[in-house]
Structure formats: C-alpha cells, structure tokens
Write a structure and sequence with these properties.
alpha+beta; GTP Cyclohydrolase I, domain 2; 4 strands; elongated
Length: 120
C-alpha cells in the first residue's frame, strides 16, 4: 500500500450511540481521526480535486453516519464509516479512530474508543 495519505483529525459530532437504551436516548459527543492511504502522485502533479480524496466529502460521510444513524457498539459505527469511505474511494485503505467523549464509565475517562482498518 502507498505511504501517501489524506487525513482528518479531531472531527466531532453528537450522536445517539451506546449499548443501553438510556445512552441511545440522549446524545453524546464523539471524535474521529482518520487516515486514508492512497497513491497521491497524480493529484500532486495535476492539482485536481477529482483525482484525490476530497476530505470535505469524507467529513460529510462520517458526520452523516454519526448523526443520522444509531448503533449500540462504536465498533459497528466505526465499521460503517470506514466501509462507506472505502466504497467512495475504491482501492484506498482507511484507518479510523472513533472516540466516545466522557463515556459513562467508572473512573470518569476522558474518552473510550476503537481503532480499525479497512482496505478496498
């Protein structure tokens, strides 16, 4: 896989995700970091958005899934996000880190989350 990549850091949204019905009734803040590995030789020469990964489109995919869907597990939400990005950019590899901010856990962690990778 190429070492070229487009990335998004610190994308935040509010969503209704959580294992319990009580968690899903209210919203919580989530933060996403993602890296999309893809050969960027062509766009680095052409200066054309159509030849690269449009990070505004990627942000839209992530925020839309995060705010308009409901999942019990953040693994499922992160997987849906990664799969949608790979579908939009075939051949790319996506690494996504999804954090639930201030989760309802003992010890009051700042965040809990998952990191997964999908390749198209």
């Amino acid at each position: 896989m190429s070492t070229d990549a487009v990335f998004v850091r610190g994308l935040e949204f509010e969503g209704n995700h959580g294992h319990t019905a009580a968690e899903r009734r209210g919203t919580r803040r989530f933060r996403v970091d993602l890296t999309i590995e893809r050969d960027l030789a062509a766009p680095s020469q052409s200066d054309r958005l159509s030849e690269t990964v449009d990070y505004a489109k990627v942000c839209d995919i992530v925020v839309r899934l995060g705010t308009q869907s409901t999942f019990k597990l953040i693994e499922a939400l992160a997987g849906a996000m990664a799969d949608a990005i790979v579908a939009a950019y075939p051949g790319a590899a996506v690494t996504i880190t999804l954090e639930k901010l201030a989760p309802p856990c003992p010890g009051v962690p700042a965040a809990c989350g998952v990191r997964l990778r999908r390749a198209g």
